[in-house]
Amino acid sequence: MSDVPINKKVIIVGGGLAGLMATIKLAEAGFHIDLFSIVPVKRSHSACAQGGINASVNTKGEGDSAEIHFQETIHGGDYLANQTMVKGMCEKAPGYIDMLDRMGVPFNRTSEGFIDFRRFGGTKFHRTAFAGTTTGQQLLYALDEQVRRFEVEGKVTKYEGWEFLSAVIDEGNVCRGITAMNLTRMEVASFRAGAVILATGGCGMIFGRSTNSTSCTGSAAGAVYQQGVWYANGEFIQVHPTAIPGEDKNRLMSESIRGDGGRVWTYKDGKPWYFLEEWYPNYGNLVPRDIATRAIFKVCRELKLGVDGKDMVYLDVSHLDKKVLEERLKGVLEIYEKFVGADPRKIPMKVFPSVHYTMGGIYIDQKHMTNVPGLLAAGEADYQYHGANRLGANSLLSCFYGGELSAKTAGEYLKAKEKEAPAAAASRAFDAEAKRQREINEKFLNARGKENPFILWEELGNVMTENVTVVRFNDKLKKAEEKIIELEARFKDINVSDMTTWTNQPLVFARELGNMLVLARVITRGALLRDESRGAHYKPDFPNRNDEKFLKTTVAQYTPDGPKIWYEDVDTSLIKPKARVY
Amino acid sequence: MIKDKITIKIKRQDTPQLKPRWETFVLKYRPGMNVITCLMDIRKNPRTVDGIKTTPVKWEQNCLEEVCGSCTMVINGKVEQACSALVDHLEDPITIEPMTKFPLVCDLVVDRSRMFEALKQVKAWIPIDGTYDLGPGPKIYPEEQQDMYAFSKCMTCGCCLEACPQINSHSPFIGAAAIGQVKLFNAHPTGHENAGERLEALMTSGGAQDCGNAQNCVEVCPHKIPLTTSIAEINRQITRKLFGLFKK
What's the domain range around B73? Predict the structure, then answer.
């Protein structure tokens, strides 16, 4: 679509929910979109979300409202989220359910034919709409279908099977486009646009095994970070309480299992001990994720009461009504049955916490623009909406809101620039950037070092999971940082064991790994410097929240010697922070 | 007998032009392994059973929990997702091949874009008036929802096409997946608006009538989508349309 004027053209990187929502909104507004994705967009990580999407509709007469949803999201995030943005998201939520309903999402229904809502963590209200046990997949497909319609109409051009390499930023520090690599032909090319939205998801792969898809490396965020784009709240990584540990990945056992009555327990003195229900009588099994995860860690690591003395507790649905199991939980239970080989309807499931969600991300302002004009971010890739801990079923919601808002901002940005002549500097920047990226590929292809990128990655995952997840100590964080620096040095001695220029997956992975290592430094340094406990970030040596010092957004800027970090005030204009007790 | 080693035979092909070859790998067995774990082990130490250094095997993957459809391949002769193919359930040696009904790209990677093109051809979407605040969609009862959900789970993974004898180099048959989507969208009150157009797309050569009723699709579908039921239903809709009885 080279005939489209640059100020009518937007590049969107990432075809999960946020990227597709932005695509649809911009296509509707008359822009042309070049949509880049590693996988066919229908295979994006959004498909993995199981439980649902939050919207306060109060269809069960419980007195729920967008205002309460807002308050609980802020409280759940331990007051680190910028409040005005979260309020906007919660107010918009019911409208998104309507939109998705009209798109044909098969939401579960009440007997009268209305959309049904279930309970999720951190709330006492039935606020979560769901479509079977694969809500994310169903929402993703709905948007995928609408985007396909725009594709047929010529409003969207898809670049599936392309990996984002870098932003093209001109001499005036304005983003003019991107460079990307075709994953089959390995060709590197530059692409121009008036604005670029990164919707490239989280970075769970930095931790080796997580519940994330293998494309969730954070590579795009790591790449632009090295180009001067700021990264915020890196240290806030959500560890989900219930997953099946696996060798290739950890598989999520949805919070909806507990939402529909599932109970967590282990044996104590020969009898079942429902420790979440005992410790948190008000919320029981539905305390927010950070709290449930720490409780399971305490039971397994401190009290040594894990099942069979191992890092495991029971997640039990064997007492639940057959109808609930069949209609609402069938799919998740089937995942367990398929991957573990035991029937959870009869034998309680064995689960343990796993890295799950990236609360931090690319720094954006209240309109989703990064510190580089023309470059925006949305979805799990950005840092807004969830503060220090995300509430269940808010992630899908933030994709829609962030997707819509970033599209709106991109449109306004381009309108304001309409009369501007295209910068001569831009063209030079394109050639230089594509050349730089080709040289990086050449360097990897010609490297004859001794380090295997997949083994380096495994070591990175182990050190991050061991030291930078649920319980954090400064001495261990320092050691982790040293280890990452060692891995960075060994990374220079890499050998991708493949010199081909056709579907060279090891080369692609090596490039991603380089970016993962850089982001791992940001995550670890952020954790090291934040001497307090807040949400998912927990330091036994600093067990309390310290609002005076750390009710702040962590902002990181790349330097060759490691991240430079400063702190920025959080928007707390609407709700006064109070102690977080459940 | 407790096994401590597993043997994996992989059909490899560097480019579409080159000839395929077989490579055999021996891996250390661990409980809970699936085929993806095996492939990941190989790329960490790409060496065949004879100790010969080779390149890491190429394959597609993403979610690893059977919801994205990426890692479809032919394992011990059966088409399925590698992530849910547990080594404990597979006979040793395990043979892994790419799907044969799609253009080969490299090793286990194939090009499934024909399936996404088919979704365009049959207009597999609800023709909404826009994403603005226009209120809720039509009321849908639980049984209808359950029926729609069954078809809406289709991952476009390719199993049904791979297993279908009607899909071959000299047949234009669109395959069961797209027909299932026509059933899904034609059943939706708003989707019904362009039901006729969808049927027309399936009335040409390569359409629903090209199904040979082998019923392999429904056998191999990882989500047990009632694909043969939808083909029968769509053929009924087409017949009604031909007789002018299908509204729209």
Answer: 5-110
